[in-house]
């Protein structure tokens, strides 16, 4: 247990970095979706919006895990 608590800050940092990457990818997918809408490609837009939603959900989950890892490391 002590070993896990010792590496918790490193795990939290990694999870936070993954969350930030997922947020950036979600924003990119939203831009692609908006572009597809403007270009009159509704199927591509729908797929891009769905990808953005999945990535945003992943970012939220990873952010929550990072917070838990930080809390576990501080305890």
Helix/strand layout:
Layout: H1 2-38, H2 42-74
Helix pairs in contact: 1-2
Q: How is this structure best described in words?
A:
The radius of gyration is 17 Å and the shape is rod-shaped. It has 75 residues and is mainly α. The chain is 93% helix and 0% strand. The chain is built from two helices and no strands. The protein starts with a helix and ends with a helix.
A few lines on this structure:
With 75 residues, the chain is mainly α.
Biggest beta-sheet profile: none
Give the uncertain stretches in residue-range form.
Answer: none
Q: What's the total number of strands?
A: 0
Number of helical segments with 4 or more residues: 2
Q: Globular, elongated, flat, extended or rod-shaped: what is the shape?
A: rod-shaped
Strand proportion, as a percent range, falls in under 5%
- End-to-end span in angstroms? 12 Å
Oligomer: single chain
Q: Helix/strand/pairing class, anyone?
A: mainly alpha
**Helices and strands, in N-to-C order?**
HH
Helicity range of the residues? Answer: over 70%
List keywords for this structure.
75 residues, mainly alpha, 2 helices
């Amino acid at each position: 247990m002590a070993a896990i608590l010792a590496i918790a800050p490193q795990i939290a940092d990694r999870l936070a970095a993954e969350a930030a990457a997922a947020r950036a990818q979600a924003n990119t997918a939203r831009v692609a979706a908006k572009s597809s809408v403007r270009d009159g490609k509704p199927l591509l837009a729908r797929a891009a919006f769905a990808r953005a939603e999945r990535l945003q959900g992943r970012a939220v989950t990873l952010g929550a895990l990072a917070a838990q890892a930080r809390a576990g490391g501080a305890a």
